[in-house]
Amino acid sequence: MAIAYFYEYDGKLYALIPSGGYYLVEDADLSTFRLLNPGEYYDTHVGVDKHDVYFGNTKIKDLDPKSVRAIGKGYYSDGKNSYFFARCFQREILTFQSLWKRFKSYNILFF
Fold first, then answer.
1. Phi/psi at 90 (5° precision)
2. How far, in Å, CA of 46 to CA of 94, rounded?
3. 82-84 and 69-72 as β-strands: parallel, antiparallel, unpaired?
4. What whole-number distance in Å separates Cα of residue 37 and Cα of residue 14?
């Protein structure tokens, strides 16, 4: 099974994180897992199962999987809580973390 950024392998679900590789989507229920908006390319990194909402491999506990909706432009809400998430933003975080580890070893301070 391959669903956009989500892949099933050996009975487990993985999310493809750009510039990072495949990461396990822990506790995902394969039998009920689906994309939030299957027809929308922009939302292919957001998945839902009967228990949780996932942005890539990250479980978002504050969003109700039964009522979560894509508002647009990377915003998601269940009517009670709202989140922003975009694929490019996730890649930028991974890049920053990688650079930070390198610069930290040189004892460089940023202001």
1. -65, -40
2. 18
3. unpaired
4. 18
* Amino acid letter for position 66: K
In the block, tokens 């508002």 appear at 71
Note the pLDDT tens digit of each residue in 30-74. Answer: 999 999 988 777 788 899 999 999 999 999 999 999 999 999 888
Residue 82: DSSP 8-state: E
Nearest in space to 25 (alpha carbons), one of 39, 37, 1 = 1
**Three-class secondary structure of residue 53 per DSSP:** strand
3-state helix, strand, coil in the chain (%, to 5): 20, 35, 50
